[in-house]
Structures are given as structure tokens and as C-alpha cells.
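Fold it.
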Amino acid sequence: MLKLVLLGPPGAGKGTQAERLMERHGLLHISTGDLLRDAIKAQTPLGREAKAAVDAGILVPDQVVVDLVQERLSSRTTDQGFILDGFPRTIAQASALERLLGGLGAPLGHVILFDIPIDLLEQRVSKRAEQSRALGVAARSDDNPEVLRRRVEEFVRATEALSPFYQERELLRRVDASADVDGVDAQIRRFLGGRRSS
């Protein structure tokens, strides 16, 4: 089955494409943000470690995030592929993930990088915030230009290191995320060869 990492800044369309991939290939979607929030809420040992870091205003330690991903992957069925969203963010995390997946006999098949100009990202985020307001729903915390720009800058710094890491392993695939949803989907389908497994 497919084993994928999706890399891209907020608003690039990762969530939409992840939903399509999950539906088409029966993949497990693993968002590290969700894992951290769930662990903190459940007050698990890893959740308590994560909360201590968050409360101190520091990054959650790489090993805590890796351990959460390992817990989630160990719960999947043996024939189920997965999508990792929001992880890895650093070379240390990427190296730890490589060791983890090697031990599980489930190496990555592709790392898909969503390339998109920041001005288009800002337009998308503004539109998403407007749609939320129109529906009477609270906008996402990252749906404002200042937060978006900061998160994009963080993403660019991380990607500058991660891109060569995955290029060396011949795993990196770039999509033009400025295309519409179907256009991005078509690019991803070409990478995956239109098959249910890889």
C-alpha cells in the first residue's frame, strides 16, 4: 500500500488532497497536530510531556512526536497504507521516521511537496476565513495574514533542509499547488501511477 508524506504550507491544499487519497486508496491519515492535541487532552504520558513543552513555550521534543507517530502506526492494519501530514518538519524528525519505518518494514513511497506562491496562499486563506464567517463558524487560528506569513516562513526554513534529504533518497515529488483541486489531484495520480498500491 501507499506510504506518503505531504509537505506544504497552510492553505496549500494538503487536507483536500489527503481526503481524496484516503477515499481512493483506503489510507490512514496521520496528522501530528491532531495526535498532539489528542494526547494532551487524554493526559497520556506522551501527552503530559507535550503539554509541558507547550506550556513552556518551546517546541515539542522530536522524540515525543516520533513516539506518537509510532503509536499510531502500530495500530494500523498490516495491509493499510498511510499519509503523514505535518511531519516530519526537521532533519532529525525525518531521520527518526526513516529508522521507525525501516523497523516496521514500511518505507516511504513518496514525499509530495506542495509548491505555491505566498500571495496565492494569502488569497486562499482570506477566502477560507470569509467562508467561515459566512457560515457563522469560527475561523481557524492560522486564517490571518500575519500568522500565515510566520507559518510559511517556518515551513520554508524546514523545507530548505528536508527537500535535499528526500531528493537524495529519490522520494521527493513536487506538485504545482497553484492549480485547482482537480489539477493537483491529476498531478498526484501521475506520481502514483493510478494504482491502488506501490
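The two ends are 6 Å apart (CA to CA).
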